[in-house]
Amino acid sequence: MNVVDIESTLQTLRHKAFEELRSLQDVRALDDWRVQYLGKKSELTQISRQMGALSPEERPVVGEKVNEARGALQRAYEEMQAELAQRELNRRFAEETIDVTVPGRRHARGSMHPLTQIIQEIEEVFLGMGYEVVEGPEIETDEYNFEKLNLPKHHPARDMQDTFYLTETLLLRTQTSPMQVRTMERMRPHVPVKVIVPGKVYRRDEDDATHSHMFHQIEGLVVDEGVRMSDLKGTLEHFARAIFGANQSVRLRPSFFPFTEPSAELDIRCTNCGGSGCRMCKGTGWLEILGCGMVHPKVLDGAGYDSRRYSGFAFGMGPERIAMLKYGIEDIRLLYQNDLRLLRQFNRVL
Amino acid sequence: MKLSFQWISDYVDLHDLTPETLADKLTGAGLEVEAITPRNQGVSGVVVGEVVACEPHPNADRLRVCQVNVGDGPLRTIVCGAPNVAVGQKVPTALPGAKLPGGSIGVAKLRGIESYGMLCSAKEIGLETKLLPKEQTEGLYVLPADAPVGADIVEYLGLDDVVLEIGLTPNRSDCLSIRGFAYEIAALLDRPTTFPEDVSPETSGASPVQVRIDTPLCQRYEAQAFTGVRTGPSPLWMQMRLMAMGIRPISLPVDITNYVMLEWGQPLHAFDLDEAHEHTIVVRQGRSDETLVTLDGESRELTEDTIVIADPDRAIGIAGVMGGQNSEITAQTKAVVLESAAFDAISVRKTGQRLGLRSEAQQRFEKGIDPQAVTGAIVRATQLFRDLAGAEAWGGVVRATFHDAYAQPTGTVVEFSPERCNRLLGTQHSEETMRDVFRRLGFTVESTEGQVWRVHVPPRRPDISLEADLVEEVGRLAGYDRIPTTLPVGPVTVGARNASQTLRKRTRDVLMSCGMSEVVTYALTHPSDLDKLRVSPDSPYRQMIPLLHPMSEERVALRTHLLPSLAQVAAFNMAHGVDGGAIFEIGRVYWPTKLPLEEQPCERTQWAGLWFGETEPGIGERARPYDFYDAKGVVETWLQALGWQDEVRFAPVQLSWLHPGRSAEVVLNGQRIGSIGELHPETGAAFDLHRAVYAEFDLDVLVSFLQTSWKVHRMPKFPASRRDLAVLVTKDVPVQALLDTAREVAACDEESILEDCRIFDIYTGKGIADGYKSVAVAFRYRADDRTLTDDEVVRVEQRILDAWTKKYGAVLRTN
User: Fold this and answer.
1) Are A255 and B169 a contacting pair at CB < 8 A?
2) By CA distance, what is B586's nearest residue in A?
């Protein structure tokens, strides 16, 4: 055997090996191919063994050729191995492909009633400002619901709230304000008093789009030395921004409540038009959202806080109105109808 | 309260203000303008026309062909269909090109005759027909004979007016009159009021009237007698002003009293002087058994609380509320007496409420009138009676007071500290600003030297009696927009929810995460709901607190049970195409200690859940009816979240509204905290629900059991040994009993190695004998200090099995 023969053999071998490799379809065939062309019994190995018969000059030349052929086959083998693995993987992927648009397996999420959601949100705002949340009885005495709030019997201001009486002296509270007095009586002489009072209230109103015989209120009360009406305005501005957005602004308008003096209504910028005037705000650009004022001296004195030394502010808001504004609910009765098609929309956390 | 822009303009200069600007100022000052309505509803080109001829239409029975004089040019031919058209009438005449609220008028051919305009009814020119007598609303609106032909109707009727509707707060009784508003607006605009001087009319001779006040409920009573009072309609300008303010014109004497009431805020009453026997008026309290037929023909009972206008023999009127029929002015009346008085606000209010009456006069009395206006109003009315009704005053005004102190009404003096004012408002108003506010309001300030001022408030402002009231006036007139925004200074406080609020919040969170939807329902319900719950007649649930005066038939009492509310929600939803759902409410029930109620009852907070209809279907998961275990799973999850899963026990219970075989009470620390079960079929049917599961828990009881502090179990150092056992027991053996027994047995050892045991399968059917079930239990054993040997585990397991066999006849399943 001479160098030329060997070289020619190698050439043929490589050609044949590559031809075969190209047609391989699976890993097992590739393995057979490896045994055949790169294994201990392969032609290439045999050629290496025959090298002893060559002259010392020829040996390195042929050795180099053999090694080169082995290297080329080895690389081709590895490339093919990788390709087959990839092909295998692709096949598996194709087989395992699922329809990602099929809905996931999930637990039904419940929903919080919109009123609870609003009340909790408002609670959080005031908790953050250091207010205690207190609650009181829905069945109140005439004394706490009216008299101690500077609304003596037969005062015409009682017409502002038509009352469900249970007996001559017991009634369904028409406002959460009796808790102003109960809280002050419980806490005196301690200051500061800082509470909010969420709860249900009742009035003899015919149920319609804007009235409900049962509804909710959140009362707020702060009593301390040196509490100012400007503090009330600032506190409520903070509240309005937390609930209705950071660019909200508020205005106070004079009003009347028997248990506050001075008294005011708080307006916020119309949530619908932003203040330019629309049907919702009757063109004024403002929406009335709550009543407030400085605690009336008679109420303070009656509850045991000397009005010459202490002052306070109070406010009362309706979560129904706030929920209706915030979520665009147009009829208050929807909040009490409990239609799951509405309620289930409140399954979101924001 | 309605306010005529035209009328108020008489008393304060508003020439440079639009009604809208005025409305903004009033609203900004706390007198909220709720509506601005022009009286002219779109009328132009309508004039006073005189019908000079009126012939039947040749081609139509119901039409007439009129010749109408409209002042200039030739007579106009106008076809008219009104039945009351007649020659000589003055009527509003819309000429071609005229605009009416209902549309424009042109020349039109009516059955062959060209009509050059239209003769109008009251409605067609936009008058408030509900305030007009019926005869003036049917057919043409006939104008007085002296109406100037050709005059513009808008001008003639004073329709170029705008009415502001103001939502008065109850403290501002001073603004229940034009004059009161004039003071307020003058103060807001810093302009003077332009009231005419009160001129006491000439009188002749001594008054025939004698007045005696026998009750402290009447402070003042003034009376003026007249002769020759002409009745008939009041002048059109007066009628229009009354209508602008929402008052129905009736007749000249009544209209005058109403007009003066609107102007002064002082209700007046005119009656037949000769019907007051001996011409003597006695103001006294009613007597028991006394009745009076009032102007509306009703017989009214008088009580001691009622202020009665009487003569020496009998009642002739109910003060401030309604006059008596026996003293009504009639065509035969020869002399009239006019009453202007100050009656007790509370008494008038109570009387009005008792009789179910609520007149304009009464509303003014009950809010408190200006004692100074008593005289002013009677003087003004006397002028009008003389000028408009041709009346002659018979003597002067007779005045009586219950107490001499009432003879000269005085205002109040209120102490005021400018420094305290700024401190309460958080403002920095100058003393000058404050003085200026009081000047504009017509309050006088005595001694502005020193720290405390004495502010004299006139009697027309009874709402001001304290410094805080003056502070509001300063804040209001200087503008609430000048109050800055600050936050309270003072010690830091910690915001907090209490345990009960926290428990409710957590409960709500867990129930929501279990897929339940929260509902909020009315607390007022009907006792018949309890029949649906099948509770016995003597059940405490029947003790519902009733309302004294319910508004509707279905909401009459406070609920004692939450199920009816939830069941109604479920039925509503099923009827509206919702297939089913899980709902809950956290709310109160009201349990009286005694009925009739003597003290505030117990208001208990509960949560109740109702699972109704079918579950939501999913992929590979078909909708199925909610069952007991759906509900129990939620309840268990909730209990687990609160840390009570190992302490609670479910035990069969009998409750009338639940299925006797599918209901359980839930017991914690030996106390029932709630119940759960499928609705009794009759209860379900009564609420139109096919099948539903109900659970309720008392949160007030649970608050006392809340444990908010706990520690974790140490992580185990040695492996656990897991073993499963399946046994056959009869169907009636509760699986919980097997678990309890296993734990008891294991606990007998000095060191219990049973870490956990739970049911993982229950099987009946093929291979299991009738009446039996196979229960499979998974056990986990572990020791703290070593790996357990098989021997140790098997020994305990065998003892458990023995105990099961002994107690429940359990047989180990081998297949």
Assistant:
1) yes
2) A116
End-of-domain residue from the set B385, B406, B427: B406
Q: Residue A111 carries which DSSP code? A: B
Contact call for B425 and A229, based on CB within 8 A: yes
What is the pLDDT at residue A55? Answer: 83
**CA-based nearest residue in chain A for residue B364:** A156
B384 & B418 share domain: no
Nearest residue, CB atoms, A110 vs list B466, B487, B517: B517
Residue of A nearest to B346 (CA): A154
pLDDT at B38: 93
Contact B617/A at CB under 8 A:
no
pLDDT of amino acid A114:
96
Averaged pLDDT, groups of 10, chain A, 350 residues long: 80 90 88 90 84 82 87 92 92 94 86 96 96 97 96 79 90 97 95 96 94 97 97 96 92 95 95 88 90 97 96 97 93 97 90
Q: Do B548 and A140 touch (CB under 8 A)?
A: no
**CA dist., res. B559 & res. B527, Å (int):** 8
Give B454-508 pLDDT, tens digit per residue. Answer: 999 999 999 999 999 999 999 999 999 999 999 999 899 999 899 999 999 999 9
For the stretch A281-329, pLDDT in tens is 888 899 999 999 999 999 999 999 999 999 999 999 999 999 999 999 9
Put simply, the answer to whether B423 touches A226 (Cβ < 8 Å) is yes
pLDDT < 70 stretches in chain B: 201-204, 448, 815
pLDDT at residue B815, as a whole number: 62
Looking at CATH, the fold of the domain delimited by A114-346 is given as BirA Bifunctional Protein; domain 2 (3.30.930)
What is d(CA A261, CA B122) in angstroms, rounded to the nearest whole number?
A: 47
The domain tally of chain B equals 6
DSSP string, B490-538: S-----B--HHHHHHHHHHHHHHHTT-EE----SEE-THHHHHTT--TT
Distance from CA of A350 to the nearest CA of B (A): 15
Task: Report pLDDT for B196.
Answer: 87
Are residues A341 and B569, on separate chains, in Cβ contact within 8 Å?
no
CB contact under 8 A, B547 and A166: yes
Nearest Cβ partner for A164 among B495, B547, B597: B547
- Hey, which residues 359-378 in chain B have their CB within 8 Å of chain A? 366-367
B357 occurs within a structural domain: yes
B22 lies in a domain? yes
Specify the amino acid at residue A319. P
Residue B604 lies in a domain: yes
Q: Enter the ipTM.
A: 0.88
Q: What is the CATH number of the domain that holds B672?
A: 3.30.930.10
Enumerate residues 1 to 40 of chain B having a beta carbon within 8 A of any beta carbon in chain A: 27-30, 32
Interface probe, candidates A224, A237, A261, chain B, greatest B C-beta count within 10 A: A261
Q: Are residues B17 and B114 in the same domain?
A: no
Of B360, B385, B406, the residue that ends a domain is: B406
CB B676 within 8 A of CB B628: yes
Helix axes B252-264, B371-389, angle to 10 degrees: 150
Answer whether B524 sits within 8 Å of A202, measured CB to CB: yes
CATH number of B471's domain: 3.30.56.10
Cβ–Cβ gap A335/B487 under 8 Å: no
CB burial of B699-735 (b: ≥16 within 10 Å; e: otherwise) equals bebbbeeeeeeeeeeeeeeeebbeeebbbbbeeebee
Whether B456 is in a domain gets the answer yes
> Do residues B769 and B620 both lie within one domain?
no
Residue ranges with strand state E in A226-300: 250-257, 260-269, 286-295
Q: Does B348 touch chain A (CB under 8 A)?
A: no
Structural domain boundaries enclosing B450: 412-479
- Asked if A110 lies within 8 A of B551 by C-beta distance, the reply is no
Would you state the pLDDT for residue B201? 66
Question: Which residues, 6+ apart, have CB-to-CB distance to B324 below 8 Å?
Answer: B271, B292, B293, B294, B295, B309, B315, B316, B317, B318
- Alpha carbon A113 to its chain centroid, in Å, reads 15
